[in-house]
């Protein structure tokens, strides 16, 4: 395949956002800043259409992987800039572009009148573009480039209201934590170059499938998992994500649903042929995911800020994706990633609508109550998305969560129990949020008399997303096919991959299992009942036992945040020690002492040169005599 | 005792006296005189050997050495005068500007 045969849609995927951003920056921002969103919305439409076009292409077996040009070269090693349009990439791409475009549309209404309107849209679209690049990269270096670009754009968006100190801090925290993970990815890329001498995915897959042993592969896998843990907010490094709520709500929605956090899971999906070769590593991924999923679900049940509850819910669901990946169910992980993209975007935008209705940057469960009557459209969207999240039968989330629970069930042991507990936990926190926000007005809650339904530009995208979330279960079969295509290699030019990877023909999504489905639904019902009991049937329960020690535990994520703060203090102490003692006192002392040694030696030698002409003449005579003797002999 | 041996003896003695003056004396004028003495000794030796081998080039070198000696005397004397006028005296043992 040559560049000339690349479908137009693939070019548009890059061309449209780049053009829109450049046009927006150089023309619109100057001429008519409040219209900056227009070219960007057009670009969103083009990208979505292109993504679906490519998805259709791939679905009918026309995936491709192509190097467009050599980006950097050093001897025989080189980094190419290429396009890889294959099953997993294009499946996520279609979701990202569709959900992302709806969020763009929503943002046009939500951010209206903000002084930074045009800056917001330009950075927002850059974020989107970075994710498109990440999903279509065909080698690790290119992936790394867009990975970093996603990080930078998220930093700019989280810190969008930079006049607020908390926003600046959250942006820095998000960026720093991501740097920790980026370092892991950088190490992984360097190790891949060291070990394999190539960075292209398909060449790596071939090498990995060749059956040879690679000494550095465990280390590479570990570094990749490390990177994914930071980007996708997994257990040891999850804490930046809830703080990243300081950005405007559309940012949170885009970050949580479509772009940022799914990048880590996607990295693992891309690297799965490598990681699955490492003994024990998938198991580690599964455990990280399981622990994160349960922990975050519990913490989400204790939070009061609407966006924070959703943020922890994202962490929990990313954990579920990791769990599915760790159980070698790449298709299930992707399926859940896509369904999650729909319902989480819808939920975030609902939270945004509520905050918007209250004229606040963010809303708390104390602030609101009984919104069911005043915000009907938002209520409807929220219920659809919440049922999908909780995994109630006909809604999208049921199918993806059921697939994960099924995989865990087949694996058995503690992971299966963990999966069931997560199902109950997610039902608990989302129903608690639903009850507290939309039912009631509870005596403890401040009344929100000004709450009114959002204007159509805010309501319609949310409704579409919620409908998507409700119907996402229908995507199960297509996604299975996409994953089969992706895992079985690329039809054009690389048929041998099918043979060497030795993949099963009918794999990936487990078959429907009545036991698991029933048990999962039972867990959801339990969680929902607990939420109803604690918030509705016993008014004031949620408030009565808060405060004091319990509140401090809830605030600090059951002590983990305190531990992290302590860790940060330890590290900064080490940094200070290294800087002031090791570097300044010891090392600099050593350097300065060598200076003194040289000076002393110089002084000692200088004493032989007293500056007396006669001495020099003696030296001259002696030298001449020596030379003469040599010449005459 | 042939003439060559006498010339060698005399010029060698003169040369080493000159060398001794240059290296042992501290007065700049005496050191300059020593240099002149060494040059003169070498010149005498050169003249003798030029006659001995009937070599015209050696005589040319003698003329050159005389010229150099004259020039050196001019430069050297003026330098010594300059040093004396600067108030540091003309004693080499006190002129230790080059001390490290």
Fold and architecture overview:
- The complex is a heterodimer of chains A (633) and B (100).
- Helices cover 73% and strands 3% of the residues of chain A.
- With 633 residues, chain A is mainly alpha-helical.
- In chain A, strands 1-2 form a two-stranded antiparallel ribbon.
- Residues 489-508 of chain A have low confidence and may be disordered.
- By secondary structure, chain B is an all-alpha fold.
- Chain B is 81% helix and 0% strand.
- Chain B is elongated and about 50 Å long.
- In chain B, 11% of the residues are buried.
- Classes of the chains: A mainly alpha (633), B mainly alpha (100).
- Chains A and B meet through helix 26 of A and helix 1 of B.
Key descriptive features of the protein:
A: 633 residues, mainly alpha, two-stranded antiparallel ribbon, 2 strands, 73% helix, globular, B: 100 residues
Summarize this entry quickly.
The complex is a heterodimer of chains A (633) and B (100). Chain A has 633 residues and is mainly alpha-helical.
SSE layout and pairing:
The complex is a heterodimer of chains A (633) and B (100).
Chain A: H1 8-31, H2 37-59, E1 64-74, E2 77-85, H3 87-110, H4 117-136, H5 140-158, H6 165-196, H7 201-209, H8 217-231, H9 240-243, H10 249-258, H11 260-275, H12 281-300, H13 306-326, H14 330-357, H15 371-374, H16 376-390, H17 396-411, H18 414-438, H19 456-471, H20 476-487, H21 496-501, H22 514-537, H23 541-544, H24 548-555, H25 560-606, H26 613-632
Antiparallel strand pairs in A: 1-2
Helix pairs in contact in A: 1-2, 1-4, 2-3, 3-4, 3-10, 3-14, 3-19, 3-20, 4-5, 5-6, 6-8, 7-11, 8-11, 10-14, 11-13, 11-14, 12-13, 12-18, 13-14, 13-17, 13-18, 14-16, 14-17, 14-19, 14-20, 16-18, 16-19, 17-18, 18-22
Chain B: H1 3-24, H2 28-53, H3 56-88
């Amino acid at each position: 395949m040559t560049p000339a045969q690349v479908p137009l849609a693939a070019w548009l995927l890059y061309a449209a956002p780049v053009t829109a951003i450049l046009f927006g920056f150089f023309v619109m921002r100057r001429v008519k800043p409040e219209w900056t969103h227009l070219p960007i919305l057009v670009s969103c439409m083009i990208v979505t259409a292109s993504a679906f076009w490519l998805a259709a292409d791939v679905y009918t077996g026309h995936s491709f992987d192509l190097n467009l040009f050599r980006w950097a070269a050093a001897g025989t090693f080189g980094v190419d800039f290429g396009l890889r349009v294959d099953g997993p990439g294009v499946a996520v791409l279609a979701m990202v572009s569709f959900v992302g475009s709806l969020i763009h549309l929503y943002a046009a209404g939500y951010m209206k009148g903000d002084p930074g309107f045009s800056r917001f849209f330009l950075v927002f679209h850059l974020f989107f573009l970075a994710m498109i690049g990440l999903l279509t990269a065909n080698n690790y270096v290119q992936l790394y480039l867009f990975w970093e670009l996603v990080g930078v754009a998220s930093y700019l968006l989280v810190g969008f209201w930079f006049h607020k100190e908390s926003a600046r801090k959250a942006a820095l925290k998000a960026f720093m934590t991501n740097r920790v993970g980026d370092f892991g990815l950088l190490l992984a890329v360097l190790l891949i170059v060291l070990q394999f001498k190539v960075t292209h995915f398909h060449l790596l897959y071939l090498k990995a499938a060749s059956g040879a042993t690679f000494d550095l592969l465990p280390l590479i896998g570990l570094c990749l998992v490390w990177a994914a843990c930071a980007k996708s907010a997994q257990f040891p490094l999850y804490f930046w994500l809830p703080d990243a709520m300081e950005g405007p709500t559309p940012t949170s929605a885009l970050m949580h649903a479509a772009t940022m956090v799914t990048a880590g899971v996607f990295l693992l999906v891309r690297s799965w042929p490598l990681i699955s070769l490492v003994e024990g590593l998938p198991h580690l991924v599964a455990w990280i995911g399981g622990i994160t999923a349960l922990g975050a679900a519990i913490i989400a049940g204790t939070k009061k800020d609407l966006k924070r509850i959703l943020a922890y819910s994202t962490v929990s669901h990313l954990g579920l994706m990791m769990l599915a990946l760790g159980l070698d169910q790449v298709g299930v992980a992707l399926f859940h990633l896509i369904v999650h993209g729909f319902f989480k975007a819808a939920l975030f935008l609902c939270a945004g609508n509520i905050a918007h209705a209250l004229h606040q940057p963010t809303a708390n469960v104390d602030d609101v109550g009984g919104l069911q009557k005043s915000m009907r459209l938002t209520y409807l969207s929220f219920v659809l998305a919440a049922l999908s999240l909780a995994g109630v039968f006909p809604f999208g989330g049921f199918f993806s969560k059921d697939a994960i629970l099924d995989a865990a069930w087949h694996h058995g042991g503690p992971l299966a129990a963990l999966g069931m507990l997560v199902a109950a936990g997610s039902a608990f926190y989302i129903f608690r949020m639903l009850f507290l926000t939309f039912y009631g007005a509870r005596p403890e809650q401040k009344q929100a008399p000004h709450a009114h339904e959002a204007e159509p530009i805010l309501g319609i995208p949310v409704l579409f997303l919620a409908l998507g979330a409700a119907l996402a279960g229908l995507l199960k079969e297509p996604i299975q096919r996409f994953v089969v295509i992706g895992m079985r290699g690329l039809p054009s030019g690389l048929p041998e991959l099918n043979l060497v990877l030795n993949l099963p023909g009918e794999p990936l999504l487990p078959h429907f299992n009545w036991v698991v489905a029933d048990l999962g639904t039972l867990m959801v019902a339990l969680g929902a009942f607990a939420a109803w009991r604690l918030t509705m049937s016993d008014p004031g329960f949620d408030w009565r036992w808060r405060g004091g020690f319990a509140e401090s535990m809830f605030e600090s994520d059951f002590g983990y945040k305190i531990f992290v703060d302590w860790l940060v203090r330890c590290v900064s102490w080490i940094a200070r020690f290294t800087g002031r003692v090791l570097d300044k006192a010891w090392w600099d002392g050593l350097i300065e002492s060598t200076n003194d040694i040289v000076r002393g030696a110089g002084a000692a030698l200088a004493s032989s040169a007293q500056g007396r002409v006669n001495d020099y003449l003696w030296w001259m005579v002696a030298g001449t005599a020596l030379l003469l003797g040599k010449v005459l002999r | 005792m042939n003439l060559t041996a006498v010339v060698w003896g005399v010029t060698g003695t003169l040369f080493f006296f000159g060398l001794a003056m240059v290296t042992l004396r501290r007065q700049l004028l005496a050191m300059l005189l020593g240099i002149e003495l060494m040059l003169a000794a070498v010149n005498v030796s050169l003249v003798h050997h030029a006659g001995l081998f009937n070599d015209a080039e050696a005589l040319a070198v003698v003329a050159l050495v005389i010229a150099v000696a004259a020039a050196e005397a001019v430069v050297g004397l003026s330098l010594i005068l300059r040093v004396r006028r600067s108030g540091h005296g003309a004693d080499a043992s006190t002129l230790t500007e080059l001390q490290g």
